[in-house]
Amino acid sequence: MRILTSRKNVFLTFTMLTLAYNIHAQSQNLTLNQDPKFEQLLNDKRKFNTSIITNDSYRIQIFSGKSEDAKKTLSDFKREYTNIDGTIIFNTPNYKVIVGNFKTRIEAEKNLADIRKKYKSVFLLKPGK
């Protein structure tokens, strides 16, 4: 093993301290310019997400099949029943049209009887399903 002379030792120590002093890897501040509409959209999304209650409500499935037929069924449904909300869910291999967000089973069954007059293969989805 080679022993360094004191002169080389001092030179290496001085060089290392100089290099370490000049390193500024994370000392800069970051300024983020963000569109104010972005924050508004986030707040709207948070409000919307808290208003969705999927596990505590009864829903009605009115269609299961191909994508285009599901879109047409949902469009027809929204035209006829403007006060009941609906959506399309993809569950391999079918698209399902799910409507309503009923808090009680009685309310759901009343709407189910009315919807069944127009749509043939409808059934009630229990909460948590």
Structure description:
- This protein has four helices and four strands, in the order H-H-E-H-E-E-H-E.
- By secondary structure, the protein is α+β, with helices and mostly antiparallel strands.
- The chain has a domain of 77 residues: Alpha-Beta Plaits, CATH 3.30.70.1070.
- A four-stranded antiparallel sheet has the order 2-3-1-4, with helices on one face.
- A hairpin with a 2-residue loop joins strand 2 and strand 3.
- The longest helix has 17 residues.
- The mean pLDDT is 84.
Secondary structure tally, helices:
4
Structural class of the helices, strands and pairings?
Answer: alpha+beta
Estimate the mean pLDDT confidence: 84
CATH superfamily assignment of the domain at 49-125? Sporulation related repeat
Could you tell me how far the N terminus lies from the C terminus, measured between alpha carbons in angstroms? Answer: 74 Å
The low-confidence parts are: none
Categorize the overall geometry. Answer: rod-shaped
CATH topology descriptor of the domain at 49-125: Alpha-Beta Plaits
Please describe the biggest sheet, giving its number of strands, its sense, and whether it closes into a barrel: 4 strands, antiparallel
The SSE string, one letter per element, is: HHEHEEHE
CATH class of the domain at 49-125: Alpha Beta
Helicity, in percent? Answer: 40-55%
Radius of gyration: 32 Å
Could you give the order of strands across the largest sheet? 2-3-1-4
**CATH architectural grouping of the domain at 49-125:** 2-Layer Sandwich
Range of strand content: 15-25%
The count of DSSP E runs of length 2 or more, i.e. the number of strands, is 4
